[in-house]
Amino acid sequence: MIRRAGQPERVLSGMRPTGRLHLGHYHGVLKNWVELQHEYDCYFFVADWHALTTHYEDVNLNMGEYVWEMVIDWLAAGVDPAQTTLFIQSRIPEHAELNLILCCP
Question: How many domains does the chain have?
Fold first, then answer.
């Protein structure tokens, strides 16, 4: 959570799309996200770039399918895009740019 004087408190969290969601995702994360969106300025993202190092040996893994299924599951669990910002990490080029800046002094 980021705290800035005069600004609403913010939450940034993400999930890697490495497979279908299950009850553990709901009880461990999604239920909390649904509550947090009512209290904070929330940004929830699909961490597809973070998932590139998971299951890399499976060339048949269809991560693109998991990305959209995950977002649909978030919506079904009660994450409201009218109250929070949802985004896909790889669709925001500034993620890669910031990583380059921070990793190369």
Answer: 1
